[in-house]
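Dear Dr. H.,

I hope your travels went smoothly. While you were away I took the liberty of generating a structure for the chain from your last submission, since the lab meeting agenda had it listed for discussion. I wanted you to have the full record in hand beforehand rather than looking at slides cold. The sequence, exactly as received, is reproduced here:
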Amino acid sequence: MSEHDNDHDRTAADGSIDRRDFLKGIGTAAAVGATGVGLGQEFGGMDGLEVVDDPIGSYPYRDWEDLYREEWDWDSTARSTHSVNCTGSCSWEVYVRNGQVWRESQAGDYPQFDEDSPDPNPRGCQKGACYSDYVNADQRVLHPLRRTGERGEGKWERISWDEALTEIAEEVIDAVQDEEYDAISAFTPIPAMSPVSYCSGSRLTSLLGGVGHSFYDWYSDLPPGQPITWGTQTDNAESADWYHADYIIAWGSNINVTRIPDAKYFLEAAYNGTKRVGVFSDYSQTAIHCDEWIGPDPGSDPALALGMARTIVDEGLYDEAHLKEQTDMPLLVREDTGKFLRADEVPGVSVDADRPNHVFLMVDAEGDLRAAPGSLGARDGQHDETASIELDFDPQLAVDRTVSTTDGSVAVRSVWNRLREELSTYTPEFVNEETGVGRQTHQEIAREFAEAERGKIIHGKGVNDWYHNDLGNRAIQLLVTLTGHIGRQGTGLDHYVGQEKIWTYEGWSKLNAPVPFRSVPTTLWTYYHCDVLDNADAETTRRVREAIDEDWMPLYPEEREDGSRPDPRVMFIWRGNYFNQAKGNVAVEEQLWPKLDLVVDINFRMDSSALYSDIVLPSASHYEKHDLSMTDMHSYVHPFTPAVEPLGESKTDWQIFRELAAKIQELARDRDDVEPVQDRQFDREIDLESVHEDFVRDWESGEDGRLADDREACEFILENSEETNPSGSDAQITFDDIDGTDEDNPERLRAVGDHWTSDLEEGEPYTPWKRYVQEKKPWPTFTGRQQYYIDHDWFLELGEELPTHKQPPTLQDKAEYPLNYNTPHGRWSIHSTWRDSEKMLRLQRGEPVVHLNPEDMAERGIEDGDTVRIYNDLGEVEVQAKRYPSGEPGTARMYFAWERFQFPDRGNFNSLVPLYMKPTQLVQYPEDTGEHLYFRPNYWGPTGVNSDVRVEVERIAGGEGGEGG
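The corresponding predicted structure, in token form, is as follows:
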């Protein structure tokens, strides 16, 4: 990037110093000293210093006091936060002096709505505390850049905004006119962390007929067991609710590392008498603060959870009333087909339903067949507030009998009896053999959890990285269902991985896509366009093709009438690092990337995705724009407000895509060959000659030009969301209420929209599932209950109709690659953000590191600090070895997200990971209507998989010399 900052003015017209030189000046002053004497000269004259007898009185060398005072002096402040996918959403006060961001500090003015919980103030972590370094960092992108060398080579030329937008617009216009608008892809993650910035590119892409990409599933953050069992994706309690639990199991959620702003609720719960148990394969930074630690073998979580479930069932510690009313355990299953017994199959059963083939049956206390209330066939769609699952009879749990059906006499069993048969496998001996956990240990924890008044499981990404992640999720969820620890304050299973759930969903969705919008599961899209399907096993290939052919999962560009399918053509990336985080990134680089004619990255820093792009556009930093931020970890809404003007030629995301829309419209009107294009999928025309006017129009009110700037887009979201503008109330939250100028900041949300499962109650932290458990509304599943039995053909064929434990597919031979490879979230970055931060690098070893158990190091002749090669049949990377006695033997652990340019060969942590997915996550259920499981971005779709990978590690000769840090 030799021309990155060419001709950048160093002095403003008024004589003030340029922001970059200002920061460099600080460093110079620190090195030279206030007197202008170098450090070497100063130290050489130390013997000439005068002795100070009275450090409070008058003495020489007082200039340091002025420098210290100046650090706490400022001209103005602004309220902001950080647009990173960490779940934190912390409010920060940003201090400005001489037009520069001087420092930031955690806000301490959160209102304490729950007097029974610890004070919520303050919130923050070490990463947020140094974001100001990024504002003026050397890797900051200041001008539009065009690639001049090969992708990834790092050769750029500076171009004007008009040149950049014209080049992009021409490519977009050509794609639309060629009717390949569905070859335009838009990838950006997590709207909750900055919804206006998210909507900027998605809104334009929807108007162009392009494709929006999922992210939550692609990152392995999505727990597929939740939509399978509960019909809803990750509804969690806010972290203040942890304090109300009597018993907490932290299962694969390294709270002290990845939930720093909320860890206080977990730690201080001990003062409230809460017992805390950690389930981690290593003796993690959270395990050391737990009362007990269980260390199962990596990937054996389903076996451990099912062993605990067996204890609860065998010893009668389950909540029978909860199971009968709230779950599918009393429902009958045919022994001949494995399918649920349906009401239309049994003559004489009284059913008040439009679709009796979607109504399920129970047996009451007298032995009579009864229709289960709340079944899908007896309600209007997935969500029906008029229906109820409340019982007016007492169903039997344990049923094993025959039933006269239209097919003759059929043997049936209840789901409960089938579950008990499945659990019979998980004897203490079996669990010990599969997990390494003691035979008595897991039983004792199960008993304590079941007997607690309010039990809670905090579930993390550690379970989601595995091929059988859905089985792990379902098995762990079973524990809170069996015990009735759900739907009450201080109970439940809380799954936190990223800011997955946005409070202001209604306003965001209306801003995001004013017209029908294509979406695609990114894992499937990447898998298909990397040509992995050609090399997969025959069974996986068959199922993937069936899911595509049956339209269970969309794939774009869509297949044309002649059977052909175009390649992806244009890709926009913003607010994320797709190329760096890509599983199977060897295939992505070698197969997918060459198919793309144009890759555009909108970024404030030069990360891996930017490095491998064709055009990089400079975006405003988090302290230079208007936006919103929210998270399900708390119930406040935070603002971004610009503390300073965007540096260099950078612009906000909203401004960039608005100006791109204007350029597309301008060029389309200038060209003679541009006509509106009829959309193949939706009843609309794609009109490039009005795309800018459509972009800035408020489609709700019809007001033209309203959404020209970021702040108006923020107001639109707040105005159109139940959480911030509740119906039937005048308690609206406006941007003025949260922008830092009012004494009442931050603001707690006022209500909840339909995508939440409980109301937001005064004086209590949000706790999910009350709508179903307490109000008796049907769960949004096929059965209307927490559903542990899935009678989809694929689940039956694969033996996964119930939660079970299965060995993962064999990707590498253990004899050749004896070490498990694990890439967990780390302490010193949020994904790849801050991985290149000088301050964060100084707090660790400054380069990619693999953590190894001392036994594994000794076996390979590796010393702490040696340079080693990690390799398998897919690739290799060179890193430093770190001695990690807290890690289990047989595992190579590399905390993820190191950038590609931080490795000598431009590989990265994902170079060792294949691109593969589990076919059961491609299904639609029910197969004919799909109300329970259907593709919706970040709700249901195939997850990327990081684990089940094996490697070997060897010392590189002459590679010793790392200094421990």
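Two observations you may find useful: The mean pLDDT is 92. The CA atoms of residues 728 and 833 lie 42 Å apart.

With kind regards,
E. W.
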